[in-house]
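Retro notes (design track)

What went well: tokenization of the new backbones is finally stable.
What didn't: we kept losing track of which sequence belonged to which structure.
Fix going forward: every design gets posted as structure first, then sequence, in one message. First example under the new rule, 177 residues:
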């Protein structure tokens, strides 16, 4: 759907991140890590996805400053989504990456519980994101590149929603290994 560059831009981002990790250690502090990733994606990813992920990560870094608790990740996700909505103009239900991200954010709110366990909560967030991505198959596009295409031609899930869920799955798998 759209201009067909979603896979290419995400592949560029993955290659840039792999190269970055090979050449220097990423920052250990979460806020600095997300800020550095935002800069990298803004520079290397391209497309509207690069800008949107840059906005998301920049905003998500702020709640991580000077904090060291699991709930900070739920706050970071909410801040990133809010920035993406404010500057990108999309909302949940518009058949965009926000559908996956918002579903994941809802599950990540469980991190605000004092007895939260990161990996099971993140696994639930990934499952929610993947289900939301699949659900975009039946949505009318209200924003993003797909909104320029007749809904009769939109037979697959939104590529941005699928990609966002895949990014979350990669984070989960990385933490598990």
């Amino acid at each position: 759907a759209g201009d067909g560059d979603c896979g290419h831009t995400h592949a560029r981002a993955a290659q840039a991140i792999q190269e970055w990790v090979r050449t220097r250690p990423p920052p250990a502090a979460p806020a600095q890590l997300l800020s550095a990733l935002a800069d990298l994606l803004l520079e290397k990813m391209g497309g509207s996805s690069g800008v949107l992920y840059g906005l998301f990560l920049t905003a998500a870094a702020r709640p991580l400053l000077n904090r060291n608790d699991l709930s900070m990740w739920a706050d970071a996700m909410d801040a990133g989504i809010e920035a993406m909505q404010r500057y990108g103009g999309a909302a949940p239900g518009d058949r965009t990456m926000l559908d996956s991200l918002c579903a994941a954010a809802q599950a990540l709110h469980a991190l605000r519980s004092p007895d939260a366990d990161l990996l099971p909560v993140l696994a639930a967030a990934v499952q929610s994101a993947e289900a939301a991505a699949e659900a975009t198959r039946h949505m009318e596009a209200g924003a993003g590149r797909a909104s320029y295409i007749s809904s009769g031609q939109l037979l697959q899930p939104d590529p941005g929603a699928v990609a966002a869920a895949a990014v979350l799955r990669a984070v989960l798998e990385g933490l598990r290994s």
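Added context from the reviewer: Residues 6-23 form the longest helix (18 residues).
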